[in-house]
Amino acid sequence: MSDSNNPWAALAAGERLQAHWPTGLEEAPALPLLVVRGRRPGPVVLATGAVHGDEYEGSTAIYTLYHSLDAEQVQGVGGGLPIVNGAAWAARSRTTPHDGGDLNQAFPGGAAGLTQRLAEVIFTHFVRRCDLLLDLHSGGARLVHLPMIGWYAGGTEAEALARSFGGGLHPWLIGGRAGVLSYEAHRAGKIALGAEWGGGARLDPAGAAAYAEGIQALVSGAPAATVDHRPPLSGSYQTTEAGGLFVPDVALGQRVQAGAPLGLLYDSLGQEAARPEAERAGIIAALPHLAWLYPHDRIAYIG
Ligand SMILES: [Zn+2]
User: Which pLDDT score, from 0 to 100, does residue 138 have?
Assistant: First the structure.
């Protein structure tokens, strides 16, 4: 790969870049790209938003930060891809409309379908050329998440950065799963962080502000003075066997024991379809936003 293709190699110290970077894929829109190269040397920090097209806090954080950031504050390169899956974004959809693919299951990419090809373009041109990746999510249309920032097992530097990210985001030891952007970045030797805030396909300005402050600390090389020592969330999504209208008995942030009732699912006649129970003990870190659940939908994240 020629270096002229490197999205930030041509930037001199103190320069900024605001561009649409062609994906080379007919059906995938050009990627909005915002980069600031600081006057001091340092790592390449890449923040990504809207890997799922119905999540907005990450994109907003990248926008506000780029337009307020002074190159004097930046150590190294601060890069942002605010809309990673532009086709999904335009469709207000979690997944790529062309093939139904979940981009966050498609990294580092492949040749089968638009989602995999887009994943390959992003991984090759951006992720492999950064030192630190921060992938910013929300619960999207279907879920609402507790604010949380995570790292992967063995990611010591990532854990230290996550714990000093600020904004009250709960520390989170993410279970590794092939195809996930931050996990594949971790496996490729990058310092990799993943974050969640809110959801319901709304934009919580507090989440965007917390994300922006955290990124600013990362790109300035000056993490917040406070360290969050709470034990990390480290669980998984629980799905429901039965569909129906879900009335939860639990709230975000609540601690539950294994076997605790999560709520009630009604069928269309108002009869009890199921009474799901917590599969593990932990803190409720996500719940459905869309209350009508299909069989096998996510009903909670317990971590
Ligand atoms: Zn997401």
Answer: 98
- Given a cut of 60, is residue 1 above it in pLDDT? no
CA of 140 from ligand 1 middle (Å) equals 6
Ligand 1 centroid – CA 183 distance (Å): 13
- Residue 250 makes CB contacts below 8 A (sequence gap 6+) with 256, 260, 261, 262, 263, 284, 287, 300
Q: How far is the CA of 76 from the centre of ligand 1 (A)?
A: 27
69-125 pLDDT tens trace: 999 999 999 999 999 999 999 999 999 999 999 999 999 999 999 999 999 999 999
Q: Does the predicted TM-score (pTM) go above 0.70?
A: yes
Q: In terms of C-beta distances under 8 Å and separation of at least 24 residues, what long-range contacts does 268-276 make, across chains too?
A: 268/244, 273/242, 273/243, 273/244, 274/240, 274/241, 274/242, 274/244, 276/238, 276/240, 276/242
Question: How do beta strands 40-49 and 75-81 pair?
Answer: parallel
Spacing, Cα 4 to ligand 1 middle (Å): 31
Q: How far is the CA of 267 from the centre of ligand 1 (A)?
A: 28
Q: Which residues pair with 149 in a beta bridge?
A: 171, 195
The residue length of the chain stands at 303
* CB-based contact 73:16 (threshold 8 Å): no
Burial class (CB within 10 angstroms; exposed 0-12, middle 13-18, buried 19+) of 268 = exposed
User: For the chain, what is the mean pLDDT?
Assistant: 96
Give strand pairing partners of 282. Answer: 256
Confidence (pLDDT) at 4: 58
- 206 CA from centroid of ligand 1 (Å): 18
- Render pLDDT for 183-203 as a digit per residue (tens, 0 to 9): 999 999 999 999 999 999 999
